[in-house]
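Summary for the steering committee. One of the milestones for this cycle was to obtain a three-dimensional model of the protein with magnesium ion bound, which we needed before selecting residues for the alanine scan. The sequence and ligand used are listed below.
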Amino acid sequence: MTNSNPESQDARTPSNFLRDIIAEDVRTKKYGDAVIQTRFPPEPNGYLHIGHAKAICIDFGLADEFGGKTNLRFDDTNPEKEEQEYVDSIQKDVRWLGFEWDHLCYASDYFGQLYEWALQLIKAGKAYVDDLSAEEIRQHRGTLTEPGTDSPYRTRPVEENLDLFVRMKQGEFPDGSRVLRAKIDMASPNINMRDPVMYRILHATHQRTGDEWCIYPMYDYAHGQSDSIERVTHSMCTLEFADHQPLYRWYIEQLGIFPSQQIEFDRLNITYTLLSKRKLLQFVQEKTVRGWDDPRMPTLSGFRRRGFTPEAIRAFCAQIGASRTNGTTDIEMLEHFQRDDLNRRASRAMAVLRPLKLVIDNYPAGKEEFVEVANNPEDSSAGTRGVPFSKEIYIEHEDFREIPPPKYYRLSPGKEVRLRNAYFITAQRVVKDEGGNIVEVHCTYDPASRGGNSPDGRKVKSTIHWVSTAHAISAEIRLYDKLFTKADPGDFEEGESVLSNLNPNSLEILLDAKLEPSLANAKLEDRFQFERVGYFCLDPDSTPGSLVFNRTLALKDSWAKIEKKSGA
Ligand code: ATP
Ligand code: MG
């Protein structure tokens, strides 16, 4: 399934079976008068990515719709990979997306309760301490077609299990020497039910509990019970946990605690995008990108730095909804939502990325005038501004061709074009350097065409943007392209890795772009459309007098398509 065309789905009622389930549970009062309670449970082992945005919009969004509440719960059961930096970034990103949690929780807050419940299961003969090594446990597990075999320790008496588990907790045994396992069914067709490990020994310092614990619960044992403690009614997670659901229910039933229910939905996959914290961490560590918030990263911090807006990401998530089968969504769909949002909110400005000097021979030297320009044609309340104009201006290199190819309507010798909001100009001659490169274009202007229209009704086929050289500010511009060359970055030859699908041209830096002077006052939260060029925002690397702008997205470039078609 590919959701390539956002218009093909009804924008008002995107599919979402989760909403239907909750609505039905509310109708039948499945949880009595309790409010709908959800949670978003990230493991703090990396920064959130756009896949998490989908989960956040589902967890928070659906609870909101039904007047319910959502906890942010850190699933911090793996002290070796988890860090405070991630805990902080995750909170920042959830808030940036526009959501506020009810309680901030940590699975580690429940370590004491989880331990008590483990003792309870041991006493009930439902859990045992196993001395087999990890490798031996794997060998005993069986396969999809063959049942597992019982561990020789499976029949250990309750008293011995209790004694050993308490001593595991007290730190008497080395890492990996013993585990606590649930006693379920080694012949179950579901491998997750073949006496899954509940606790492992790990002498590691935890970022919150320090050295208090040297046994840590496994995800499956911690997650459902944490849900139950928080009285989560609908615990929504991705499809890879569907096979774990029987185990999720088993623990809750054995313990007789609040019956949270797990419901699985499809994981977001996007073309040209890698959504795995583990792999993204590798990119950061190996400096494939400049950091977690590199604007090419699919992290929320990367999207934020690139100029994406929470409104657009939420609109995208609302549109993709949720389903019971995994698919892949085209990156163009996310970009469509972002362009749509920026088109409405971005201030227009003129910026020349690859400047070519243009001299207007018949314009008075030393004269300066200001042309009045709308800040946002989509939003009249955004007002107007005066943009300085003078005898020498910069235009884009690509807006001039000495020998124009067919269908090239921009400036070339003898051709007349409009300077946006200013005048009609006609190119007269070029100045070249010793290498034969064009360094200056000379032209004449029609003073009667001020504002961009000629009183005689003369038409021009093209309008180009410009910046007055005397007033221009210089800036660094970072142009981003897809990080991968393949729609499926995971599609690589044996012996290779996703690295072989990296796009070597995903970042292009232009060090001396020329911008209209109003951009000197740009702020980080501002969004701009550089006319005819694309959507841009200020990068935090900027310092006063040394600005850096990121291209959020290009505008659709019809010329590039024409050139491509004609094979030029
Ligand atoms: P990753 O593989 O990137 O580390 P994860 O599933 O291990 O992802 P968690 O921190 O455990 O990441 O995820 C928190 C929540 O976000 C979970 O409920 C998980 O199901 C959900 N989630 C993670 N990735 C996606 C995705 N691509 N699409 C939708 N939901 C996701
Ligand atoms: Mg995970």
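Key point for the committee: Residues 407 and 562 are 9 Å apart (CA to CA).
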